[in-house]
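2 proteins. here.
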Amino acid sequence: MQTVRKKIKAEPLLFHTFNYLIMLFVVVVTLYPFLNTLAISFNSGVDTTRGGIYIWPRVWTLKNYEAVFLTGKVFDAFWVSVARTVIGTAVSVFLTAMLAYTISRKEYMFRKPVTLIFVLTMYFSAGLIPSYFLIKDLHLLNNFLVYILFPGAGAGLISAFNMLVVRTYIYTLPESLVESAKMDGASDFKVFMSIILPLCAPVLATISLFTAVGQWNSWFDTFIFASSRQELSTLQYELMKLLSSSMNSNANPNMSSTAARDLATMVTPLSIRAAITIVASVPILIVYPFLQRHFVAGLQLGSVKE
């Protein structure tokens, strides 16, 4: 009897020990690529070619970041990226929530056909060429509005996936809230703004993060639709050009010849790529902790309809 009791007490200890080891392994596997990239970005480019850099730089240097920030174009492009991310995310999330609320109403007779049309866009696309001619006919080439109306190379302002997530979340809200508001004389828009939108904060935070990451990381739409105007260049596009030039010449073409020769002896494509990755990732890493609580709640509550 005493042996059985000891066995029962040992089982939770074994389970928790095994569980902690598995979680520790997952954390290490998740964090190591980022820490390794961070270490390479602060390590001398010439020394990096020797290999053996793991999570701590062997020869500290800031030359990799100097090569990234030496041209003023990066700073201007940074603010363009911030503007398109903030404005594009706000407009997209608001319109997505409005559409999701509309097709969630049972009294809307066209809700099923409209939903089907949006779902089809997840599987079929007209392609890049028709999108280009559409944007050209709308006179949006080399226009900042192309980042808002057609983010991600013509992908569209409203994401069908995000719309379905928000609609599913709205289904979980008590219908009595909407009915009581309408009995008091509230219009559909008033119900949406005063009741639905505040209650959808978790799921809106979720799709906001999805949309913001997509806007921030996008560079191909700049290359296709706005490459002729330098003032519309985004951070990701400038970093892409810098990476391409570093792989060809190991130097930034915007620098003077003397500075280029000096820097070429200290940086390599691998070290420049690591620095670019960190520069592009830091803003999203700063924003994520503020949305993490709503992000997790939105994924849990908006994914299952009871």
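next one coming up
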Amino acid sequence: MTQTRTRPDRGRSALGPALELVHTGRAPTRAVLTAELGVTRATAGAVAAELQGLGLITVDSSPSTAGAQGRPSHRLAVDPTGPVVLAAQVHTDGFRAALVGLGGRVVATAPGCGPVEADPAQVLGEVVAAGRRLLEESGRRCVGAGLAVPSAVAEPEGTALNPLHLPWAPGAPVREVFRRCLADAGISAGADDGVAANDVNLGALAEHRHGAGRGARQLLCVATGHRGVGGALVVDGRLHSGSSGLALEVGHLTVDPEGRPCHCGSRGCLDVETDPLALLEAAGRRPGPEVSLLRQALSLLRTEYHADPAVRAAAHRLVDRLALGLAGLVNILDPDRIILGGLHRELLRYDGDRLREVLDARSLWGRGKTFAVLPCSLDHNSLVGAAELAWQPVLDDPLRVQEA
């Protein structure tokens, strides 16, 4: 166990903020850390040394030239050999497990394909078992675990309120089951093990800290998964989750009143008008069971958009409906940045001009205010977001790693 050195109270209280600054890339040097924390150089040096002693960051003793007033300053970075958290994601076609270090760095990942059964313990047991194998193979120390699911997760219960695209019963106790699976697998890092949240919320959080959303004050994320559409809003660095974790269910905005029946009981929702199955069907393609719907839709755009008019027409249809939904959200939320994930990221690549044109025409602020519409930049951002949940107790109190 790492010995804790005596520190002034200011240094002790600065440990968490300092680690978060390095974790998010906002303090690449000790000089920047000093300025961001508003402490003396000596205190910043002691804090950096403490975090290094905990195995969380590295302090490069070869000074950089980026210090204050041109003075050399030591480089700071997350420790690439430090502890990890187990991140897990469940989707309609299976799961993915990953080990994620500080800085949002994916150390190892393992996918699992197959049908998800009605009992959450089936797939959660499989994803935790895959995570345990990754831990055994890597020899890394695990200090937490987080789970991303394609459902709104009610707080404080940790239940999947209405998992429309999974066969789970409404109110499935996913957090409780996940924690039990972790305990059965011998993966334990304290009382906060097994946190769970909606996959798009977590993807937005990861993008805000490490990807295309970095620096945005009001970040709107809209994304497709393997089925359906989700949304999230990050305001001043925090997820806006509403009174009980259920905010921003954007998939159930109506964009075509005469459109397809939706699982929620309405018609023409974003969820069924702009997801991978909608693209395949609009292009006259019959989805096959051997590959996920998302992979089939992405492959169709990449290989046939320019060659097949039916594929282009299908993409135009989805883009028009997506832009209608985004325009309504812009009018209500006034974001300064929009990021699109999953199939929507690819639609932006192929039909970005069309999307922006419809968005400008339908948004009250589209022509009078500039806001960026960007693709999500992180691979597996929901997994990275699940890791952010698991890392948060350590970011709040880095000394917790001594107890793991």
